[in-house]
Design a protein that fits this description.
three-stranded antiparallel beta sheet, 5 strands
Length: 228
Amino acid sequence: MKRNTRIATALTAGVLAVGGVLAVGPVTADSGGGAVPAAARTMSPGGPGYGEHRGHGHGDDALGMMRHHDGTCTGTGLPARGTLTAAQKTTLAGMAEEEKLAHDLYTAFAGRYDAPVFAHVAAAETRHLSAVRTLLDRYDVTDPTAGHPAGVFADPAVQATYDRLLKEGGHGLDAALKAGRTVEDDDIAALTKALSGLTAPDARQVYGRLLAASERHQEAFDHWIGDE
């Protein structure tokens, strides 16, 4: 199947990226240490224009705000702050590293391969990391990603995972797509475990939405792998 036909099919299926939106346009730097197409940041869930491709006027982000076409936000944001155990705070810090890993890896692959799925999902990971950082601030947990450039991580285990997946993804587009699938599989497992026993309403909301997003990302990578 020709690539442009494949993209159109993915858009129809709604699984090319979160919401299945094809982004084009100039590349701009973002807070996650990488670069993604500007349109991917504004035409995916939580950005102006997303609702046009889904048949309604707004999208919602991991913080619970409703963003409209004009860029304005309405809603109450996150629920009330709850209580996190020491172990849950450690898990929260780990979530930040996981979101950064996904963002940095997909940004690297976006620069190597002609597969828009990487830029789309990288843009989503930027928003996800922002949501996790909001929780870090709420619960006075040190952000382990602060000050680290793309591809650099505080946790040696996360660094090793990133290096391994980056190397594996360097063997070709199919390998990179499978590396992305692995990241989403790991994120789903981690978020499912993190939700167990979690009572803090704000953390439950963010984790739940990140889990749903990872499942959509998983579908996106599966679709591209199936077409390779």
